[in-house]
Each structure stands twice: as C-alpha cells, then as structure tokens.
User: Fold this.
Amino acid sequence: MKLVKSLLLGTAAGLVAAAGAQAADLPSKKAAAVEYVRVCSTYGEGFFYLPGTETCLKIGGRVRADYLYGEPLDRANDSIGFRARGRIQLDARTATAYGLLRAVVRMEITRSSGTPFNGSNGTVGTSPDIAQAFIQFGGLTAGRVTTFFDNGDLPTEHFGTLRFSDAPDVDVLAYTFTFGNGFQATVSIEDGLERRSNGFLDTPGPQTLVYAGQRMPDVVGALKYTGTWGTAQLSGALHQVRAANVFVNGLGFANIPDTDYGFAIQGNVGVNLPMLGEGDAAWINVAYADGALSYITGGSTDSLSAGVLAGLLVDGYINPTTGNISTGKGWSVAGGLRHYWMPTVRQSVFGSYARFDYAANASQFGVLDFNELRVGTNLIWTPVTGLDIGAEVIYARLDPKGRVTVPTGQSLGSDNSWEGRLRLQRDF
Assistant:
C-alpha cells in the first residue's frame, strides 16, 4: 500500500513540474504604458498638455450671482432683480513655426428676472450665449472676441454701467502688428450690426432712420502700449449709416437719402499706483462719436434713462428740410480709482459724464439734446482666491435740454435714480 501511495505522489509531482515548465515557455503580454497628463507651464498656470500632442489646454469658468435694487417708477415696476450666470471656457494653445496658434471658446448662460435686469415687469429670461469663439494665428484674429476699439487692459472694476465702450464682444477679422518695447497696432473689420443705435424704433415716424442692409463692416484701428507703469491706447472706428427710407418732401418728390458714414475716436490711459498700495491703479477714457453713438455706450441700449426721463440715442435721422441723414453726436469722459485697503479688501470709485447733441430741428419730433452723469463705488472682499463678494451703489442723473412733459403730466428739467447691487462671483 505504501508503495502504491509513493508512486501516485511521485507521478503527481512530475505532472505539476512539467506543467510549470510549459507555462514558463509561453509568451507573456506586458501591460500598456500609462501616459500621465503633463503640466504645461509655457502659458501660465492651469494649462496641461493634451496627451499625445503638443497642444496646451486650460479649462476655466465662472459662476456669478447678482441681486439688484433699482428705484421703481410706479406700482407696476419691479424694484428687485435676480441674475445667475454660468460660464465655461476652453483655451487651447500650440506653438508653431509661424507663431502661436490659439483657439478660445467661452459659453455663457444667463437667467435674469425683474425690471432692473430683464427690462420687462414680472418676466424671467434665460439666454445661452457664445460670448467668445475665436482663432489667433500669429497676428491674425478671427471670430468673436473683445472689440479692438477698446483696451482690455484698463484696470476698470465696476458691476453696473458707465458711459464708454467698455469692451463688448463682437465678430471681427483683425491683424495685430507687434513692434516690440510694448507697442502694437491693430487693423480690424468688425460687425457694424452690433454698433447701431436707433431709438426711433420705439416711436416710428417720417423722420425715423430705418437702417438698410449692411454693405460695409465697421473698420477699426488701434495703437496700444503696455508697460510696467500701465497701458495706453488710441483708437478710431468708421461706421456706415445707410437708410432704407423713401422720403417724400413737401413738393411730393420721393428720394432715398444718401448713405452717410459715422465715426468714433477714443483715447485711454491706465496707470499702476504702487506708491498708494500694491494692486492700486487708476484709469481714464475719453471718447467722441458722430453717427456712431454705440461706441460711447458699448451698443448696450438705444436710450438712456434716469427716473421717469429717457434720452434717445440716434445715429441719424431724416432731416425734414433736406431729406438727407443728419447724424447725432456725443462725447463722454469716464474714469476710476481702485485701492486695496488690505490684500483681501479693495474698493473702486468711478464715474462717467456723457453729452449727446442733435440738429436744432430734431426737437420737433422728440429727439432732445441731453447729458448724463453716473457715479458710484463698490467694496469687494476676497476671502479665498477665486471668490469675490462685493456690494455696489450707483447714482445716475439725466438732464435734457429744456423741460420735458412726462406721462404723469409733470414738466421736468432733470431726474435721477439709484441702484444697488450685491454680487458673489467664483472664478476657476
């Protein structure tokens, strides 16, 4: 019996050894190498290399919550407004033999309610928006980006509205020449549809300028300097004013007004003030426009208002004497100062003054000369990096030329209003 058991154990051990030897001879599959995401420090913080490429990508975004109080005119008006805005941005950059190749997409979705934000009592609006989508290749910029008429490096920091162009996003095709030592010049063609002001659309009449189809884009030129002390820019724009009206004069003859061309010029300076405190800065902007008033207001509105008074913004109107286009003119001065009371607390004081003038006969159909003053201040606390909690108040005063009779029967020579805003903003 012992002999049989020994034979069985020996046979089993032999089979195990043989199987092990055969397994050792079989080919083995190695695990695939893991490709880790690499940090790209070439373009600043937050960029990383897309695996398998030399393209650096940064993913960013913003969440903003605004709460606004605006003085109501009557019982039907909302005085409280709510707004929530979300932003996602992708920034891809690749170094090439021809210079930097860059593509940016910024998507924003905004939900607003109340008259102060939404412009209509008792309504809620949601608006998805491609805020920016552009390609840069060397000096070329194509797509939707901040207008080159403006200087995006000005140290402005206000929540509400001031009367200067204030860096709106428009569709452009531009080329920037870099000269070194901080100087650059840009020539840009931009979408003129976003720079039209025609307050008559609310009250059409025979003098209404009905814009015809766009036949020429706006042409913008800018010369900019950026240095250690701050930044400065001088810019100009040409804007087509083309009417679709058929005007009938007193003799019964009809004609279409000749196309006119408006223009705008602007200069600004931003200065760093480290002698006051780290991060302190001041800025000033001066603008003049003739037949292109949106270059003063940023294209955000066709009228300015304070209290029950409103002033129309009109690029042009049909002159009842000549049947041709008479253009509206305007100028503005805006500026501000930013001061850090401590590394986490800063305050801005700012304001703007704007004046708009039309030909003498414009008053016959309700278009008046007027000026507007806006002043305000805010206080912002940054408890942690990327989070701002701020409060702002703005006072506005509108002064038309002469007295105006409003729907309530009052005759007013001026009016004013206040607005207050609370903002929480997280950037990442």
